[in-house]
Amino acid sequence: MDLSLSSKKQQDALWLYMLLAGLFTAALVVCNLVANKFISIDLGFHTFVISAGVLPYPLTFLVTDLLSEFYGKRRTNIVVLSGFAILLFVLGVLWLGAQFPAIAGSPVSDAAYSQVFGNSQRVILASMAAYLVAQLVDVRLFHFWKDLTKGQHLWVRNNFSTMLSQFVDTVLVVGIIFYDRESLDAITSMVLDGWFFKVLCAALDTPLMYAGVWAFKRYFGKGELGGLRA
Questions:
Q1: pLDDT at position 82, please?
Q2: What is d(CA 124, CA 141) in angstroms, rounded to the nearest whole number?
Q3: Residue 225: per-residue pLDDT
Q4: Could you give the CA distance from residue 10 to residue 72 in angstroms, rounded to a whole number?
Q5: Interstrand relation of 38-42 and 47-51 (parallel, antiparallel or unpaired)
Q6: Helix (H/G/I), strand (E/B), else coil: 40
Q7: For residue 114, how far is the Cα from the chain centroid?
Q8: Phi and psi (nearest 5°) for 48?
Q9: How many Cβ atoms from other residues are within 10 Å of residue 143's Cβ?
Q10: What residues have CB less than 8 Å from 100, skipping those under 6 apart?
Q11: Residue 173 contacts residue 130 (beta carbons within 8 Å)
Q12: What was the pLDDT predicted at 44?
């Protein structure tokens, strides 16, 4: 943290970092817990058929962009890698819960537990690989666009980093799960459908990105923004 900031502002900056990291982790865990339910969303011009896990997932990219803007690449990568470890822990607990039979009268039977949480090894591999690669790509692209535009045009780094990294995410998830189960045309259709929905979410979160950066600079000061980064 920047020692030129007051003690209170340093503490507030730390609390904000922890809050964003917690929000990121919560969205990440929820994504995987509800991933087995598939839904359709009719927006009039197109009906998207997606996993329910896609709904909170764009939030993780918004949070990493905010973290990158406020705290820099290193601290953002720490959150991404911590999220990966936490997700491994959650998946391990879900696996452990499946190793013990449900007692008589349990509100959740073994069959129900297995149906909801019994992801195949391939689905888990796809989720983990896509998450780690896409999030690290998002952080790197965010700073690439920021350096290229010399810190101007926030919407460029926010949207281009998120849209490109979510394409990587979608390709990895769909490709790993369905590469030997569906035709190339079907896989392409699923990739484009899922990615297009994420692109719309990325475009819609741009005002939130601007609002977050405005509030951050207003409180911590424009000149002190860089001092909070590492």
A1: 92
A2: 25
A3: 42
A4: 16
A5: antiparallel
A6: strand
A7: 25
A8: -90, 130
A9: 16
A10: none
A11: yes
A12: 85
Of 48, 52, 32, which is closest to residue 40 (Cα–Cα)? 48
pLDDT for res 230: 57
Mean pLDDT to the nearest integer, 126-134: 80
Strand, coil or helix: 38: strand
Residues 6+ apart with CB under 8 A from 126: 172, 173, 175, 176, 177
Tokens of 136: 């690290």
Angle ∠(46,51,53) on CA atoms, nearest 5: 125
Write out pLDDT tens, residues 94-119: 888 888 999 998 998 988 888 787 66
Residue type, position 5, single letter: L
User: Which residue is listed with tokens 């039979």?
Assistant: 101
Residue identified by tokens 């929000």 is 23
Give 137's pLDDT tier (boundaries 50, 70, 90). confident
Confidence of residue 222 (pLDDT cuts 50, 70, 90): low
Tokens (6 digits) for 160: 């281009």
Whole-Å CA distances, 112 to 38, 115, 120, 161, 191: 17, 5, 15, 39, 29
Q: Which two tokens stand for residue 24?
A: 């990121």
Mean pLDDT across the stretch 147-172? 84
Length reported for the chain: 230
CB 57 within 8 A of CB 27: yes
Nearest to 76 by CA among 87, 88, 65, 62: 65
Residue 1: both structure tokens together? 């943290």
Name the CA dihedral angle for 75, 80, 81, 82, rounded to a multiple of 10 degrees.
90
> Environment class of residue 7 by beta-carbon count within 10 Å: exposed (0-12), middle (13-18) or buried (19+)?
exposed
